Structure formats: C-alpha cells, structure tokens
Amino acid sequence: QVQLVESGGGLVQPGGSLRLSCAASGSIFSIKLMAWYRQAPGKQREFVAVIPEGGSTNYADSVKGRFTISRDNAKNTVYLQMNNLEPEDTAVYSCNAVIRPVVTSTRIYSYWGQGTQVTVSS
Fold this sequence. Notes:
- By secondary structure, this protein is mainly β.
- The protein is about 0% helix and about 55% strand.
- It contains no helices and eleven strands.
- It has strands at about 1-5, 10, 20-25, 30-40, 45-50, 60, 65-70, 75-80, 90-100, 110, 115-120.
- The strands form two sheets. Strands 2, 4, 5, 6, 9, 10 and 11 form a seven-stranded mixed sheet that branches. The protein has a four-stranded antiparallel sheet with strand order 1-3-8-7, with no helix packed on it.
C-alpha cells in the first residue's frame, strides 16, 4: 500500500508565497511521475504541474513563471513552490503519483493524497 501526505497549505495574502510538500510512503520501487492538481469551489479539478522521473517539468499556463515543481527522490517527496499568489489560486491542492510498487512486477498505479487547502485573500 502507498500513502501520499500533503502539507504546507494555508492562508496567504495576494502576492505572497507558499511551499507545498507531498511525501510518498509504503511499497515503492520507483516513482514514474509526481504531479499537483487543484480544485476550486464549484469547479472541476485541474492540472497544475508535473515532474516525471528524470524528465522535464510541465506547467499549466495559469501558473507558469509563478510556480515551481521539484522532487527529492531520496525522500520520495515532491514540492510546489508557489510565488506571487493570486486569489484565483485558491483551491484544494492534491498530489498525484504514478508508482511502480515492486521490482517483481512492471505494473504501475496512480495514487492521490487527501489534499491541502490554499486560500489567497487579503
């Protein structure tokens, strides 16, 4: 079994910064990719950023130049540094990871964290 636990959300003023973390634990042989999604009230969940295993990052247009995704492979952790936050960034941010749990099988699975609230307001 694999667990993803997010942290770092909170209330911040417009123009402020937050850093989200998502730590994966459990049966993990390799993590193929880690990503962040968000869901604002009354809206569908949307992609924010992704960082594949050994690959280049990709961002939603709405956060390019303001958000930075990074990962620490030794800690099985992904981060989302969010700068110059706007009220439109208010949402529940969820971590997603595509993981190969065991070396004896090439099957991969998608896992989600429980989400962390980010509120941007003055």
